[in-house]
């Protein structure tokens, strides 16, 4: 006989496991179904983010940045380092230990909150109507040759996304790598190619460049970081190429890839000239696609949009009653924190509360060095929309804390509506802006004006003073510039 639950969550990434925990907190009998296995073949909760995404990449970024500081920046502090070397295997072991700690922690959280955890692939089978008020969704859970069935009144789909594939560059994670392969290299490649100058490409390219690789990034789009504010993107490209040493080419068109002793990428540059790039390893980082394969959408008539995402409304309700979807598998940015908040909102909706996520105030972060973060509208978006605005900007070079850190590149920009002064967007590039962006998100959630931030007392010396001065700059009254 099938196990029956109030809520079944398919997927245990940041959207799924958080949704399951919140459902359980609200008194709902909940099961979380997930099929992820670690390299040792054991169940590993947390999805892409914890296993081969956010968490391991930040661990490697920190290790590579520490190495770079020791090699190039400690001397300015009077710290002498001799015989510096990098043990990649130790770096990877540290990363793996962090990942294991967090994935194990998710399992403990589910157990603590009395969420039933089942390992296997969850597939929607059908709805079963027992009586007028008792309609359940039937889900098959398959693990190898073993298949079980569970039933639930409500279903939350949180199956995440998978790397987009290029037909001419089949990933084997030995020489041609996706994000998982890029996080599992056992030694520093002499020459590394990256297809795609998005978040994954830049972060992974940065890691291996600092550790000694010659890194070339090829981007098909005509501009660099086109989702970011143009001024931020321009500053980032200058720093990444001149200081970090990345080679970044945009507007390219790849015609083919040949593999032999090395990997040769054949492409046309922005001017249409034929070029070749010879590398030892190649990372394919051209975005991600929603993971709906094997979900059983066709079994139950679940509607997908023309891009393969599960179609949902503003409350994450799908085309079917009592079935919801959150995270990378639905519209909006593919960000772990967005998925988590949608999971919470759906759980509260199911429990009869008022769950909501404001997609207009989701913060974006790229964990390069310097970091990049933003929330709200870019300057080019405001111009395209014909919205009258005013802006203020302040550089980290003029900030005391940034000078003490020795991290003075970048700036903060505040964009506000011309008439009301309501903040429309905040854009940052500089040290620890991944932490600083939260103040801007709070301000925008409360419909704050630039004047509000300008009149808040910020600690001195702190990096947050750069946001303060940028807000002052909207009214042309920044003090320290």
Automatic annotation (TrEMBL):
One of its GO terms (molecular function) is flavin adenine dinucleotide binding. It is found in: Cytoplasm. GO terms for biological process: 2-oxoglutarate metabolic process. One of its GO terms (cellular component) is cytoplasm. SUPFAM superfamilies: FAD/NAD(P)-binding domain, FAD/NAD-linked reductases, dimerisation (C-terminal) domain. NAD(+) binds at residues 196-203, 219, 287. Its cofactor is FAD. FAD binds at residues 58, 122, 159-161, 328, 334-337. Residues 5-343 form the FAD/NAD(P)-binding domain. Its EC number is 1.8.1.4. Pfam families: Pyr_redox_2, Pyr_redox_dim. Signal peptide: none annotated. Disulfide bonds join 49-54. Transmembrane segments: none annotated. The active site is at residue 460. Binds 1 FAD per subunit. It catalyses: N(6)-[(R)-dihydrolipoyl]-L-lysyl-[protein] + NAD(+) = N(6)-[(R)-lipoyl]-L-lysyl-[protein] + NADH + H(+). It comes from the Bacteria. Keywords: Cytoplasm, Disulfide bond, FAD, Flavoprotein, NAD, Nucleotide-binding, Oxidoreductase, Redox-active center. Residues 362-471 form the Pyridine nucleotide-disulphide oxidoreductase dimerisation domain. Its main location: cytoplasm. Belongs to the class-I pyridine nucleotide-disulfide oxidoreductase family. The active site is a redox-active disulfide bond. This is Dihydrolipoyl dehydrogenase. It comes from Nitrosospira lacus. The lineage of its organism: Bacteria, Pseudomonadati, Pseudomonadota, Betaproteobacteria, Nitrosomonadales.
